[in-house]
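[Meeting: bench + compute handoff]

Bench side (C.D.) handed over the final construct sequence. Compute side (W.E.) agreed to return the predicted structure before the next meeting so the bench team could plan truncations. Sequence as handed over:
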Amino acid sequence: MISRLPLLALGASTMLFAVSGLAHVASAQGVGDFYKDKQIRFIIHSSAGGDYDQWGRLVIRYMTKHIPGNPAIVPTNMPGGGGLVAANFLYNTAPRDGTTFGIIGRNLPFQALTKVDNVRFDPLKFNWIGSPELTSRVCAVTEHSPAKTAQEAFEKEVLMGGAGAGTAVSTVPMLLNRLLGTKFKLVEGYGGSTAVVLAMERNEVHGICQSYTSVERSKPGWIASGKLKVLFNMEKQPLKVINAPSIHQFASTDEQRQILSLFSSSVEFGRPFVAPPEVPADRVKALRTAFVSAMKEPELLKDAEKLGLDLAIVDGEELTGLISDMMATPVDLVGKMEALLK
């Protein structure tokens, strides 16, 4: 007698697969019905023309056709407070139905961890959609800077442009002064990295701390020609494409190295796209899927190359894991970091 158990098991498996498939189709139809004929508002935490603005506008241009229902995505710049205005809006004010999401500063979760003033969001409750870039953070100065090397930054006063409280442009020089003893003098009031670079051209300030890719894009060829000198990068390993040390070389204690590593962890967030808390799970999934699909579009890749943007996909689940790890940092280490940044 031949057993029928394998056939029964196969039948059950087939039925489960069919039910799962139908549920997936129904979910997609439900999301499509919701988004059909709607506009999605996309919040950009910085002013027009900057790196985040370029990344945001590039990706959403291709996301729309990958979201069920093909809604239009309309960008809105919302600068202010070093990106806090946009992040607080997305967390506290924006609709929680999937019709609003945005791009925020990668350093903002770190600002929440260290309890910076005016942070009114919990990074763990945001819905993280993905990031289109990974980079390294550097401090670079013009040929007019009194300091031309990392060592000289500990010996000579260097005017560094600031882009507002909470931005990496401002927090990096402040942290390094207090933690390691660099002699950076932070000059605030520029509002964004683009304005800082213009101030460097006018010799109002000597330098800026931001991502290496941003430095390269803002003034193509300046590093190669010597008009701009990278003093150091912030990660543990020296950046291979530049002839400069890692700032970790100048740390003398394990605690200093731990704080530098914690601070640099925000670079892993890239250019994060986020949706407000409590957005229905199927719409979050649709946005995440659309993000990854858009990043693989041949035309997007061509546009990115024209803009000098280097792609590196970090998906929403990976971003969520990175945020969870950072927010689980021991309290004593966070307290020391918080004290340095106040």
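W.E. noted at the follow-up: Confidence is low (pLDDT under 50) at residues 1-26. C.D. will use this when planning the next construct.
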